[in-house]
Description:
This protein is α/β, with parallel strands linked by helices. About 30% of the residues lie in helices and about 15% in strands. The protein is built from ten helices and ten strands. The strands form two sheets. Strands 3-2-1-4-5-6 form a six-stranded mixed beta sheet, sandwiched between helices. Strands 8-7-9-10 form a four-stranded parallel beta sheet, with helices on both faces. Strand 9, helix 9 and strand 10 form a beta-alpha-beta unit.
Amino acid sequence: MLEDLTTAASPASWPAAYPQGYAVVDVETTGLARDDRIISAAVYRLDARGEVEDHWYTMVNPERDPGPVWIHGLTSDMLEGAPLFPEIAEEFAARLDGRVLVAHNAVFDWSMIAREYARAEREAPVRQRLCTIALAKELGLPLPNHKLESLAAHFGVVQQRAHHALDDARVLAEAFRPSLRAAARDGVRLPLLECLPLKEWSSGPAAPRIGRQAGGYGSGGYGSGGGYPSGSWRPSRKRPACPYPNPGRYEPGKPLKQGMRVAFSGDTSVDRELLEDRAVEAGLHVATSLSRLTSLLVTNDPDAGTSKVVKARQFGTPVIDEAAFGQLLRDVEPASGN
Length: 338
């Protein structure tokens, strides 16, 4: 049925630069913060043209409360006898090795996977990821929003158990195949992003939190891992220029729009770099300072006296917290003309 929805690219026209294999992944977790854990994982391995080779699923004992059971349905009793992550790390790695990780909102799945491997003192064998939200935008799919169910409905894929890792991975694999073929047919460059390995440092007030890029801040720095202390100054990351024009201020009650300039201030529950990655993938401009051109300030402490918060008050820049920003990231409006 899916073959009828898009014309498959012929062997001669298939882009030579496309990857040779994909691992479509979904993980369910205890929550969204840096210290949350994976409780189930599924991988569909696909060949170069998106055909399913095999699939794999496991529950994982998070050694803590399972979190929002009403969403994922996995209780403490169900997870009690499940393997710990280090016990499934080798099999999981074998499923990912040499493939592009594909996920819906891929920066989240990748960050959770990378953190688990860091805790296990191992490295996930993933070098590139592809977000199906970004791919849908590249293809200009006429979706009402960028939720998985909307992408599935567009391609006629029926969800059976939403928020079950195996079924979500199946749905995504079935929706990714026609997306990949449409991209190949139209010569679309796949929105691949680099996956840098993460490293865990020993805990302590002077040690960076898990999730800092391994070696990213040079060696011989603060703490045992050569990074910067938690909460201290750190160099800004170089990012490519945002390709979209700034549409202006964010208006409360309306969606974000690609090109908006977003600044962050203070601590965030999701690692700042990962939160910024999510913003960039959605087409937003991450601003390192706040000016009259800033569309929005994200902070969990609007009463703080930081320079960004003070300037936001002076300029009348809208301020929202991290949770509200995370909700808005799920459905960012395309830039004008896209």
